DNA sequence: CGGCCGATTATCT
DNA sequence: GATAATCGGCCGG
């Protein structure tokens, strides 16, 4: 299990390091897990795309707390999105988990999210993976570093940096420049993930 | 495959 | 009262 010092740095530094890490969720004792293959960084009040842009609110409060917590919020009237809090206490920052490659507990994940199971479009979106991992607002503020946690990260698979695509963040709507174009999104495509992961790990 | 659009409601102005 | 760090269905090529 990764400890708090792994998370305690600005989101644009943490986000690329999360690619290849294994996200583990215990659902009634069953391990559900996927390798993280897409992330986005949201850093500080000065980042106009960050929820902390307008200062501290009830919703974004968790972003100001200890790193290594889950920031789970509701959007578009129906979707839950999972972020991992970054940076030091008092500095609002988080990394959005946008996609995972499933490696454990796929049967249960398919029950949680039956629609497209076994297609490569299965877990390639932030609201898709929260469904598969049975995550919702009840996990907001959850400490991923505490002993016995039911949501945490493991070391996972080493991913060579040259395989990771970098580009602007997605879905930012009318966020003004230059924030709209900042390359704070990191992604390993599905095929590359499959090549890497199915070599060693089961 | 790509673009458009409706769903649906907590949160913030 | 408007908007949203999205998704899935439907359309056309």
What keyword list fits this structure?
27% strand, 202 residues, alpha+beta, DNA-binding, 3-methyladenine DNA Glycosylase, Chain A, 8 strands, 17% helix, eight-stranded antiparallel sheet
How would you sum up this structure, described in words?
The protein contains 5 helices and 8 strands. The two termini are 18 Å apart. It has one domain (4-191): Roll (3-methyladenine DNA Glycosylase, Chain A), CATH 3.10.300.10. Helices cover 17% and strands 27% of the residues. Strands 1, 2, 3, 4, 5, 6, 7 and 8 form an 8-stranded antiparallel sheet that branches. By secondary structure, it is an alpha+beta fold.
Strand-helix topology:
Layout: H1 4-7, H2 11-18, E1 22-27, E2 30-43, E3 70-75, E4 79-85, E5 93-104, H3 106-112, H4 126-132, E6 151-154, E7 165-167, E8 185-187, H5 190-197
The chain binds a DNA duplex (13 and 13 nucleotides) through strand 3, strand 4 and helix 4.
């Amino acid at each position: 299990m990764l400890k708090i010092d792994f998370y305690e740095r600005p989101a644009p530094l943490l986000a690329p390091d999360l690619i290849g890490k294994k996200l583990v969720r215990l659902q009634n004792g069953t391990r559900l897990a996927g390798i993280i293959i897409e992330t986005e960084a949201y850093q500080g009040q000065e980042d106009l795309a960050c929820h902390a842009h307008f200062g501290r609110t009830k919703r974004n409060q968790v972003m100001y707390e200890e790193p290594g917590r889950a920031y789970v919020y509701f959007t578009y009237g129906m979707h839950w999105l999972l972020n991992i809090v970054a940076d030091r206490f008092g500095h609002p920052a988080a990394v959005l988990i946008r996609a995972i490659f499933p490696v454990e507990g796929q049967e249960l994940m398919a029950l949680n999210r039956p629609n497209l199971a076994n297609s490569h479009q299965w877990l390639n979106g932030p609201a898709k993976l929260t469904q598969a991992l049975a995550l919702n607002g009840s996990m907001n503020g959850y400490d991923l570093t505490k002993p016995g946690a039911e949501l945490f990260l493991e070391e996972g698979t080493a991913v060579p940096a040259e395989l990771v695509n970098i580009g602007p963040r997605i879905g930012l709507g009318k966020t003004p420049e230059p924030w709209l174009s900042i390359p704070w999104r990191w992604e390993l495509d599905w095929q590359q993930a499959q090549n890497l992961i199915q070599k060693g790990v089961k």
